[in-house]
Amino acid sequence: MGRRLTSLADAVSAARALTPASGRVFLGMAGAPGAGKSTVAEELVTALGPASVVVPMDGFHLPNDVLVARGLADVKGAPESFDREAFVALLRRLRSEPGAVGAPRFDRAAEASVPDAIVVTPAVRLVIVEGNYLLHWPDAHALLDEVWLVEASSDETRVASLVARHESFGRTATQAREWVDRNDQANARLVAETSLLADRVVSVW
After folding, report:
1. pTM of the predicted model, to two decimals?
2. How far apart are CA 64 and CA 88, in angstroms?
3. What 3-state DSSP class applies to 34?
4. CATH homologous superfamily for 4-202?
5. Domain boundaries in the chain?
6. Could you tell me the end-to-end alpha-carbon distance of the chain, in angstroms, rounded to an integer?
7. Tens digit of pLDDT for each residue in 92-134?
8. Whose CB among 12, 87, 102, 158 lies 3.0–4.6 Å from 47's, allowing a Cys bridge?
9. Widest CA span of the chain, in angstroms?
């Protein structure tokens, strides 16, 4: 595991140093649910400008009707609830195709993915791939140049953030806490199993 980045300024500097003048670099942003991956990724894009883009793994959630049919509705967010093959195929396309490539974005309010909501243009030099299982899935990890692990300041902070997120999308406080304890924490333990594979650790919250 590489050196720890303890400020957004450090993270921006490290990401800028990775960004090539030509070609394209892929930076993974992994971490447990609620660790702050999306926030760090978006902060990097804000700082680095249009030569960077975020491609979230969340866009590859299986549709709700498929989850129901497979008996996975109660574990949405677990590795088996994603279309891993399609996610890896997109990473391969982004590495090999010079033209614009569309990527899906997950709409939390609708609980559904929106196809081609993100466009990775030929001008993009840094693709920030954000998701829980970038280190857990070897085929995805192999397509990334570096993977950073985002950590919250404490597990209590991360869990509180998750509970608040689930409440904001309509769950009661009891339902939100039960979902976090049953699903999100199980997924956090999976992420922890491969955390030592990360190139750097980001702890800015």
Report:
1. 0.92
2. 21
3. coil
4. P-loop containing nucleotide triphosphate hydrolases (3.40.50.300)
5. 4-202
6. 19
7. 999 999 899 999 999 987 878 999 999 999 999 999 999 999 9
8. 12
9. 50
